[in-house]
Every structure is written in structure tokens, then in C-alpha cells.
Amino acid sequence: MSLLVVGSVALDSVETPFGQKEDILGGSATYFSTSASFFSPARVVAVVGEDFPEGHLNFLRGRGIDLEGLTRETGRTFRWKGRYSYELNEAQTLDTQLNVFQAFSPKLPESYRDTPYVFLGNIHPELQAQVLDQVKAPKLVAADTMNFWIKGSRAALLKTLSRVNLLFVNDAEARQLAGEHNVVKAARAIMAMGPQRVVIKRGEYGALLFEAEHIFACPAFPLAEVFDPTGAGDTFAGGFMGALATSSGVLDQALLRRAMVMGSVMASFTVEKFSLERLREVTRPEIHARFAEFRKLTHFDDLGSLER
């Protein structure tokens, strides 16, 4: 089944302890759709400026990503500049230039309106609601948000959350949104706002899936080298949603757990190089092999003979 993502397609400038890159491909919709495209057809609604390289669009098209919903407007493309310390847990934003993204108003092509899986990227919650007004009975709606919207547009965000099935947030955002220090209590409080499921991303410590009374903990893949964590969260969401979209059945716990692991698999590739360089070259056998490694990392037998 196909997926729809509404978010940013951007040009990033990133500095880490391991190097520096200027005006590289970025944006939430870019990372999400590229990751998801390894599993399911992806459709993008976004805006770029006159300066956005055609080569980047050709890369996305080469991944089979539908760009009918991406428009090129007069002006410059959304730009973000950030720096990471050796911890690589959080970026220090050095510069943000919204440019054409400032006036972004998502308009879905008619062919997109019946897409079964919808991901609302990290944009203003009122714009997220506009997307929901245009889609027709989606099977699953997932959303991302950030501390800026939680603090400054809470009322609009809560209205949008009442229409969302699944929310992706990091642990700090979950605590802020719920007003709870404990992430378990925070997840339950968020589910009371509308979403039936919450995924709390914890960076190098993995992610937690909350659903009713069930919790699933997925580790991050242990890597010897991490170069750039930019886009890892959106890549995780793309792998997660792409894995869900491969199934036509019920979204049961087994499927959701596999989706969590696949999200972690895809995110682990993204951080190995700058921008989408690693996702440009990764192969399906590599994805399958790393998924199998996850099984080895997390498998253990019953208590058995250790009991007295």
C-alpha cells in the first residue's frame, strides 16, 4: 500500500566532530519518503525554491517516489544549519531560513487523497489538520511534532492529535506534551489525547512503543561509527510506516514490533554518513542482514534451568 508524507524538503548545512557539509539534501519528507520507499510506494507533498538542485529531485524519482505533490516556487529553498557535539544526541541550531516554506500550504493532488497511510511531518499543527481535511478515510494517520509547537501552538496541536492514530515524539517532547516526568506516564497521558499508539524515540537508546497496556522496547543498533544523526528520526518513521504498509492485514502487535525494528534498522544506516549518502547506496540484502542482526541482539531463551 502507498504512503503519503507531508513535510519539508530542504537544504541542510551540518557540522559534526567528523566533518562539515554545506547545502546537502535534507528535510523531514525527504528522509521519510526515501526510507519508506524501500518497502512501499511513497508520495510527497512539499515545496522547494528555484535554487533546489534538479539532481536531488531525480534521486527521489529514482527511488520511485511520487513528486506530483511537490511544488517549486519563486524564492529560495528552506535551509537549516546545525552543529553536533561529540555526544551527537541533540543539534545546536545555528540558522533557520524558512524561505518558500514560510508560506507553505499543503494541497493534495486528487490522486493522493485516498492514500491509506498518512504521515504528517513536523509542521504547524494547523497545516497538519489541513492535510487531514483533504484525505479520504486513511487506514492509519501518524504525526510528528516538536517542542516549538507543543509550547507555542498547544491548542491547535491537541485538536490535531484528536484525529491522529499514532504519534512519534522524543522523550523530552513526550514529557513536555504530557506534563509528566516519567515516560510511561507521559505516553499514557498522550494516548488519552487521541492517539491509540505512541512511539517515543530515545536516540542512541532506541525507541519505545506504547499501545493500550502493551509496551515494546526496541534498542538502537550498536554502531562503531556515527557521523551525522540528522534525519534519523524521520528515517525511523519512514521505515516503521513502510513496514506497516507492506501488510494488508490487521495492525497487530507482531506487525508493530517488526515495524519498530525496521525503523531502527533504517535509522542505523542514515547516521553512518552525512545527509542521505548512506541511503543512496544501501541494498536490500544489507537491510535484511541488519534486521537479522537485531534478532540476534535481542533474542534470549526462557528462564528454564536457572529456576530452582
Automatic annotation (TrEMBL):
Domain Carbohydrate kinase PfkB: 40-275
InterPro entries: Carboh/pur_kinase_PfkB_CS, PfkB_dom, Ribokinase-like
Gene Ontology CC: one annotated term: cytosol
GO MF, one annotated term: kinase activity
Keywords noted in UniProt: Kinase, Transferase
The name this protein goes by in its record: Adenosine kinase
Organism, scientific name: Myxococcus virescens
